[in-house]
Structures are given as C-alpha cells and as structure tokens.
Amino acid sequence: MILTTTPTVEGRKIVEYKGIVFGEVINGVDFIKDFAAGLTNFFGGRSGSYEGELVGAREAALKELMERAKRMGADAVVGI
C-alpha cells in the first residue's frame, strides 16, 4: 500500500477514486506519564512520554487508514 502526501504517485496512473478514507485513534495517558509531563512543563524541556504517545498514535492512525483503504479496494492513498 502506497501512502503519500502528494496528489499523485510518480510513474503510476490513478484509474479510480474510491472516496475519502481516514484513520483515527484516541489514546489515553496514564497518571505517571501525565505527572512526568507536568514536571517537564514546570522545569522546562521536552516531554518524552507525550512525544512517544504522539508517535504511537500517528502510527496507529496510519495503520487504520491503510486497513480501511484496503477494505475499499484501494492500493494507494494520496493526498494524506
């Protein structure tokens, strides 16, 4: 499955549009991560625990997007 932010894929022709596809994820953050992020906010710096959660959520959303596109019969998602 090709995933791209561009409206086309070089060397390939779009022959059919299947419609809009999306991936969505809701992640919760536990008390420990929330507390650690609060300390980071207070003392300054980057919150590694929140950054990790964001990376995981993005990866899960892209995986869901791919699975939904496959169910629609697509072999690529353009314009993400």
Describe the structure.
The structure is a single chain. With 80 residues, the chain is mainly alpha-helical. Helix content is 46%, strand content 5%. It has two helices and two strands; from the N terminus they run βααβ. It has helices at residues 31-43, 48-71, and strands spanning 2-3, 76-77. Strands 1-2 form a two-stranded parallel sheet. The longest helix has 24 residues, at 48-71. The relative contact order is 0.31. The model has no long low-confidence stretch (mean pLDDT 85).
> What is the topology, as strand order, of the major beta sheet?
1-2
Order of helices and strands: EHHE
The largest sheet is:
2 strands, parallel
- Rg to the nearest angstrom? 18 Å
Please give the alpha-carbon distance between the first and last residues: 13 Å
